[in-house]
Amino acid sequence: MYESSLARQVLETVLQQAVFHRASRIRVVRGWVAETESLSPERLSSQFATHARGTRAEGARLLLNLIHVEARCRTCGRTYAPEHHQLRCPVCGSGDGEQLGQTGLAVTAIEVD
Q1: pLDDT, tens digit, for every residue of 81-103?
Q2: For a designed S-S bond to 75, which of 33, 68, 71, 94 qualifies (C-beta 3.0 to 4.6 A apart)?
Q3: H helix intervals, 23-87
Q4: Which of these ranges, 26-30, 35-39, 57-61, 75-79, has the smallest mean pLDDT?
Q5: What tens digit of pLDDT does each residue of 57-74 get?
Q6: What's the pLDDT at 36?
Q7: Of 42, 61, 53, 57, which is closest to residue 3 (Cα–Cα)?
Q8: Rounded (5°) CA angle 41-99-5
């Protein structure tokens, strides 16, 4: 399950930051996930909650914004929404496209006590 491994990585990152900043508890983790990642923010949040049990992040909310990533076809110049990293142009069928934005997942803020 991809969400489980990503949730664990996010948790490890925020726990390291909590230690560095001498925080006793993590309350909220904010970030974003690109829609091309085929991730479910709800499943990711659920997996984060599961992995956070017994840590400083237990009970913390993982709040992720879904960002839309577009692509541009280098053949016909059209802009479109790629599906799951597939850059095939829905207009001309070319596979020569470029993504026009950030992909992946990022933590942008951590609220702590």
Answers
A1: 887 678 899 999 999 999 898 87
A2: 94
A3: 41-52
A4: 35-39
A5: 999 999 988 888 899 999
A6: 65
A7: 42
A8: 35
Task: Please check whether residue 96 is in contact with residue 75, taking contact to mean a CB–CB distance below 8 angstroms.
Answer: yes
Residue type, 9: Q
Distance CA 69, CA 67 (A): 6
- Report the distance separating Cα 104 and Cα 49, nearest Å: 20
What are the C-alpha distances in Å from 8 to residues 13, 34, 71, 73, 75?
9, 18, 30, 35, 40
Match 């950030």 to its residue by tokens: 102
